[in-house]
Amino acid sequence: MSEVVDPTAAAPRPRSGAWRRLLRSPGMLVPAAVLTLMIIACFAAPLLGLRSPNATDPLHSLAGPTAEHLLGTDSSGRDVLSRLLHGGQATLLAGLIATAVALVLGLPLGLVAGYYGGWIDRALNWVSSLVQALPAIVALLAVAAAIGSSPYAIMAVFGVLLLPAVFRPVRAAVIDVRRELYIDAAKVAGISDTSIIGRHILAVVFPVALIQTGFIFGVALIVQAGLEFIGVGDATAASWGSMLQDGFSTIYGNSFLVVPPAVAVALTVLCPMLMASVGRDLASESSTPSRRARRRVPAPGSDAPRGLLDVRDLGITYRADGKDAKVVEHIDFFVREGEILGLVGESGSGKTQSVLGVLGLLSTGGAVTNGTVLFDGRDLTALSPKELNRLRGRAIGYIPQEPMSNLDPSFTIGSQLIEPMRQHLRLSRAEAKRQALELLTRVGITDPERTFRSHPHEISGGMAQRVLIAAAVSCEPRLIVADEPTTALDVTVQAEVLDLLRSLVAERGLATVLVTHDLGVVADICDRVAVLRDGHVVEDADVQHLFTQPRDPYTIALLDAMPSRLPPREVGRQQIGEVVLEVERLQVSYPGPRGAAFVALDDVSLDVRQGETLGLVGESGSGKSTLGRAILGLARVTSGDIRWDGRSIANLSGTARRELSADIQVVFQDPFSSLNPAMSVEDILVEPLLSDPALTRAQALQRVRRLLDEVHLPKDAGRRRAREFSGGQRQRIAIARALCRAPRLIICDEPVSALDLSTQARVLELFNELQDRTGVAYLFISHDLDVVRHIADRTAVIRHGRLVELGASEKIATDPADPYTRALAEAAPLPDPVLQAERRKRRLESPTASL
Amino acid sequence: MIAYTAKRVGSAVLLVFVVSLLSFLLSRLVPGDPARTILGVSATAQQVADKRAELGLDENVLVAYARWLGHAATGSLGSSWFTGQDVASSIASRLPVTLSIALVATVVAGVIGTALGLLAAVRRGFADRLLQPLSIGGFAIPNFIVAIVLLGVFAVRLRALPATGYTDLTVDPTRWARSITLPVAALAVGAIAAVAQQMRNAAVFVLQQDYVRSLRGRGLRGSTVYLKHVLRNSAPVALTVLSLQFISLLSGAVIIENMFALPGMAALTVSASTQRDEPVIQGAVVTVVVVVVLVNLLIDLASAWLNPKVRAS
Fold this sequence. Notes:
- The structure holds 2 protein chains of 2 kinds.
- Chain A is of the alpha/beta class.
- In chain A, the strands form 4 sheets. Chain A has a 6-stranded mixed β-sheet with strand order 6-7-8-3-9-10, with helices on both faces. Chain A has a 6-stranded mixed β-sheet with strand order 16-17-18-13-19-20, with helices on both faces.
- Chain A starts with 17 loop residues before the first helix and ends in a 6-residue tail after the last helix.
- Chain B has 13 helices and no strands.
- Helix content of chain B is 81%, strand content 0%.
- Chain B is globular, with a radius of gyration of 24 Å.
- The interface between A and B is large, with 92 and 95 residues.
- Chain B: It is a multi-pass membrane protein.
- Chain B: InterPro entries: BPD_transp_1_N, MetI-like, MetI-like_sf.
């Protein structure tokens, strides 16, 4: 029996159309019909003209099924069918009571604990774990001893014991939603807590609670019947549990008597649980994935391979929901030993899928459908998994994109490093360790012994990427496949990692395929380039040629969209007014473990004027986003002050903060998390407007339509849901939301970093255009000096929470005073292979290289 | 790890304390006079008053609780109001029976459930599609119905295993094993289903992680990837489910012991409950909660030990 309704289960998140599919699914309809029939039969029992459930007939005891007694009679000659239906009433009612109590208590408590967190959450959580530690039937026996054996009272108490089954998943779902940026955006927009819970959070929590209801109802029935079975309950009335007991006690003589109540209990429990389970699967769409797309026969290539790796006419298809989606159509590239080939493209171009296809590492549902992948003359797509395993790691090394998520968090770096060496090279443990330590030294790790013993969470992202490079070359491969190996790294670390990669390739004569979206990285390290678009190679050229004489219009557009090729900010293009925002000696610190505070911002002072753009540049962990969040009231100020129009706004609460929402707005980095995917664009934009009581809904909608036009979205965009839009379009929606109450300052927190190059250039243009028209000021947070040089009048550089330099953007970009700013500027690769090679040479010789 | 252990132990002690207090208050503060119930309607008011004094019912409830707690700390749980038997010793003679079936069922569920869940996650396809309905069925069918079926088949029809009775492990291990086979099987079905389902979801999640792709990218054998990396990373989920399942197995054991006529905690608690034999109930509830807390503490510590972030601190 399972009284515990797996509260550890991940809270499912509902998606679009889930409800419609839910109602149409046979897995939902059949149990729903059976359950309904059961309930109707039980409660209509008095109308069916059956014998009284307690009328004995000693002459016909233990009779089998007859026309008069459809399910026979029990040992006292009572009609089984009548007892079954009448007994069902009590059992079902008791189950309902327990379910209702659990829901009424668990739902609001889960909401409160999840939304407010802190000590409320800790206290409620402790109570929940206390309740959970009580074995239900033992606890109910103790309760029955005290309050008597009324089944309804006992079941009400059982409802309390079931509280964690609602509380936990609801709390988990709320915590999940609360982390979404769209909740922050709603707070900045001046929406009250109750409205946020009502509009954004309940919509997610409700299905979770509903699904748990099915499980709880089933469990309550089991426990109810179980208690009656052992004789706790109303002994005079018929119930399924007591009928089971009757049947069980005569099991040696007449084994039929136990069947009707057993079937009734089993069905009534199974139906709601089936419905709940189907509902959960649909809500989380975690049902079994469709099988792999089928592989077609490859076109045989007769001519000799063009290099160590020769990919011809590669096609990759994913199969989901019964449909095939072709992600790579016809891709052709090759790489020779000692050569670095860049595969360049924007998101959706198929660059990553192509290399995963080459390596046989496509996700579930994906398959190579056409073409050949010749490695050293053998077609990799025709190999068995075992044969492929003998090549991967041994002859072909793979360097993944995200350094932290690509190391197994449960094992030490050392054990992960020696694992492939022991398998492929059959080394002894000691010899493998010796070689691993050598490798760690080679990739530039200063204390290899210590790193060898460390777990992944104990090292930095840059170190982790070095470890992954060490792992890729550990078995002396001939080919390296690197998938965006520096995208997740800061620009200074990126330069070091690229240097390392270049020297390893030169030293060992490796053939290398490097996937990237960054043309600067291409200029820095590649010999040849293949430009990918929509699953096709549009241009394949020598790196020098590509940058000086690009042929394909798409390549040309891509090169033009590079931030370093965008024009610098015109001086005096804007009417710059009074100072609106002042930040003075700001400090923000977070309490760390054992009282040690983590200082995110320290002694930062700056100001923003009306109509101006102030760029704020820093690497990850510099505190640049924290500054934005402190101004927005999303992070607590520890000391110092923030003033708006001369009035302090640090740590404002409630109404005062909500009033500011008309003046200060935000655009976040992640356009996917910052918009509630389930809401229509219109609703998203109307929401902040409605906090203005002077505005009717019709007026608000009119304003929304004008806004959509201003950010260049189609007229019909308002009725569509946020999730139907691409990243760039979503960012336009987020900008429209920031604009809708005509603010005077918008905090732009890395608003273009998640976007493709060409989209990025267009969104930057939109920012400029809106500023020209409305005179809004921007605090523009970015990690990219080139972007800031294009958009900002002045630029502040921030490092380790401290302001390093503040001045005119052009000066900061071309002639920085601070060595850190200079290192930052020089680490970003130039979009020209020749200039970049010279600059790299200078950088490696200069003293700041070790910064 | 030391700080973590101390925190968990402290929390466990507090939990036992709060439960014992709540259970004591529940029995004392609910209306009704146990002395009258024991003596019957014919007893005089004086007799009832004497009985109340004898049982300590006339004391302030917090004083009474403090007295109970003081005795409990020295291992004495008082004696039954009805039989006069020492509560601690009658629990001591019955607890091993209940623990035998609940612990063995937990271990069985952990091993089989983990294996099934991992298999379904790795194979997907048919094995996975089969697991889903089976696990819902196993989870939903009450254990007493499973017990009826098992009894009907193995004890009544085949006469292969005993339907009733218990042999102590120290007396005869083989007969002990035979005597608990059917009860354990009846209990374990639901727990296996729950563990398998959760393990499957956890392993599917782990299999989608980047590091699994990287491990495969290094050409590691499937057995290394699945049995070492995937299993280790989904183990905390399996352990959490197991600790919850142990609690519900203890609960289910009350009914199963009753059906197989095992001389465990169930018979003691059920009769004490119907008679309102407060010292016995209080003793039984506290004992069961102590067992739950100890087992969950062990599982928590095992889970923390598997997590390098907790272990290091």
